[in-house]
Amino acid sequence: MTNNPTIQELSHEDRSFPPPADFAAAANAQAVEYEKAAADRIGYWEEQAQRISWETPFDTVLDWSDRPFAKWFVGGRLNAAYNCVDRHVENGLGDRVAYYFEGESGDTRTITYSDLLREVSKAANALTELGVKTGDRVAIYMPMIPETVFAMLACARLGAPHTVIFGGFSASAIADRVKDCGVEFVITADGGYRKGKLSALKSVVDEAMEDCPEVRNVLVVRRTGQDVDWNDDRDLWWHEVVDRQPEIHTPEAFDSEHPLYIMYSSGTTGKPKGIMHTTGGYLVGTSFTHWAVFDIKPDKDVFWTAADIGWVTGHSYIVYGPLANGATSVLYEGTPDTPHRGRWWEIVQKYKVSILYCAPTAIRSFMKWGRDIPAQYDLSSLRLLGSVGEPINPEAWMWYREHIGGNRCPVVDTWWQTENGSILISPLPGVTETKPGSAMRPLPGIVADVFDDEGNSVEPGNGGYLVVKEPWPSMLRTLWGDEERFKKTYWSQYPEVYFAGDGAKIDRDGDFWVLGRVDDVLNVSGHRMSTAEIESALVAHPKVAEAAVVGAKDEMTGQAIEAFVILRESADDGGDDVVNDLRSHVRSSIGPIATPRSIMIVPDLPKTRSGKIMRRLLKDVAENREVGDVTTLADSSVMDLIQKGMKES
Ligand code: WT7
Question: Which residues line ligand 1 (CB under 6 A)?
Answer without folding.
Answer: 265-266, 312-313, 388-391, 413-418, 439, 500-502, 514, 516-517
